[in-house]
Amino acid sequence: MALLEIRNVSRRFGELQAVDDVSLSIGAGEFFTLVGPSGCGKTTLLRLIAGFDAPDAGQLLLDGQELAGIPPEKRPVHTVFQSYALFPHMTVAQNVAFPLQMAGKSEDEISSRLKEALELVHLANKARQFPRELSGGQRQRVALARALINKPRLLLLDEPLAALDAKLREQITGELIALQREVGITFVFVTHSQQEALAVSHRIAVMNNGRIEQVGAPEQIYSYPRNRFVADFIGTINLLPVEVRATDHDGLRLFAAGLGEIVGTPIVGPSPGEQGAFAVRPEQLRIVTAGDLTELDNHFHGRIRDHLYLGDVTVYKIELENRVVLDAMLTNAVPGRARFLERGAPVAVGWQRDAGVYLRD
Amino acid sequence: MTKWLVSLPPTLFLVVFFLVPALLMVGASFQQPGDFGGLVPAMQDGQFTLSLETYRFFLGDWIYAEIFGRSFLVAAATTLICLLLAYPLALLIARSGQRHRNLLVLLVILPLASNFLIRIYAWIILLGPVDLLYTPFAVIAGMVYVHLPFMVLPLYNNLEQHDPALLEAAQDLGAGTWTRFWRITLPLSLPGIWAGSALVFIPVLGMFAIPELLGGTRDLLIGNLIKEQFLDNRDWPLGSTLSLLLTVAVLALAGLSARAGRLRRGRA
Question: Are strands A186-191 and A31-35 parallel, antiparallel or unpaired?
């Protein structure tokens, strides 16, 4: 049985349908991420789980028990707030021990578990300091230790990395994964950053306009987005408007205006004449400067219009016939190859039929 | 350099109109009263006239200590009652919607816009028919009434700045309504409590109009005593001594409470 069951939950604020008929099932020990643009309803959903807000319709069940009517202080659910919300008048030790005091634990138990928790987040030597004396990353770890110390059934994390700079964010992302594995507590993580979502999660739910667009493992969501929104929001992708020509046993035959025919993996559903998009990731494209790529199912000619040097990879903008532009990404694995393809250079670009997916409108 | 130039006028003002009179007062406490008020010069007819006479006088009669004690008691009671009344009010204002806040604050300070004496006379009219006029109750009620806004404003100013996320975090971590107040709101509002208490306690200690108008003959406070020395008894040296001792007592109290605050934080 799932640890947390969300059944047809809705929440409306005036005209805004913040959460719209959402159903989710989150398992014990899972690192589950809600990702979406700001205003997609992910934070509202988190507040419904924490108990700061109540749904207009639907049910929330934790361990099979209905959560409606149980106030936040009685739920075995703790939250790491975006601002961390550390108590400024308490030391690190007092902050972290707070939930144990609230639970009425004995002094002995508090002091031993406090030591354990501070060691878990590498802050044992900061116990007597006040939050204002700590760096952003340290505060973040205090917030984590405080939310974890009383072993909640569920830990909610509301954009906990948003206030950190990029380098620290990367480091703490790694620590977060290790921490979750170590404590074995279910994490529900909210973020607007698709990279963070892909990096940390066992499963991701992509949200938009209060609805869940797709739920799945990171690689599943990345490789097989179910619709244009997911394809576009997670990572970067080339979206070519196409019309379905035919579907038969040896492929899905699509027609892209100005380009010609594109072959995709055969799937059940699309019928000839239907409009949609063909989506293919930049790293799935192959580029050669001389000759054709006739060995690939789809191949075209074009010119390099621009490139974006990112250090580890370079993204080339390739202009095909009829001004269709594709992004292609090449890793800079060979020293000196980074600017190998100059602007205006003629190239051939191609991909196998299973490199991309057809998305219905 | 600019910093010094800009701060020169207010510094001069304070030195001339605050420090100099304060020092004059210290000097006066050792001088002799003139026959019709004023002071006998420190040197007269080649004779040195300074003495500790007023201090001996103060220590020689227990009535002064009693009046000092009563004044501190009245000030403490007024401060406590103001705090108990002002805290819920300040909390209510701080937690109400942004649009209502300014209106509510305006209502709190509105009484200050009318004349102080007129408001005290209004209390005479109020308390007269119920037989409470000229009692300690009337004095404290009047003191609380006049000083309440000075407790509400610093408290509100403090409470309004609390991050609401802190209370949510406390609730999330298992704290009920009362625990959230005792563990989060109250400790965070201590600076506001201290500021409000100082703004009430110190003026009440020196207040003479309210006890004179609302209190009985047994409700005289230090303020009345000092006023009497200057206006009625023409004993400026004794008045100066009383003022000086009052100032010293207030400073000692402030020092002690600051020290207590540091100790508390040190232990935490």
Answer: parallel
Residue A218: helix, strand or coil by DSSP? helix
Listed by start position, the domains of chain A span 4-232, 236-360
- For the entire predicted model, the pTM comes to 0.85
- Look up the ipTM and state it: 0.87
DSSP at B34:
P
**For testing contact with chain B, the best of A53, A84, A102, A146 (most B CBs within 10 A):** A102
- Average pLDDT of chain A is 92
Q: Calculate the alpha carbon distances from A150 to A51, A83, B233 in Å.
A: 18, 21, 71
Q: What would the mean pLDDT of A94-119 be, rounded to a whole number?
A: 96
The arrangement of secondary structure in A236-360, i.e. its CATH architecture, is: Beta Barrel (2.40)
Out of A13-22, A93-102, A117-126, A268-277, pick the least confident. Answer: A268-277
Q: Chain B residues with CB inside 8 Å of A153's CB?
A: none
Nearest to A281 by CA among A193, A213, A361, A355: A355
Q: Angle, nearest 10°, between helix axes B190-206 and B62-95?
A: 140
Q: Is the pLDDT of residue B1 over 80?
A: no
The CATH number that domain A4-232 falls under is 3.40.50.300
Whether pLDDT at A91 is above 90: yes
- For the CA atoms of A114, A117, A123, A125, the dihedral, rounded to the nearest 10 degrees, stands at 30
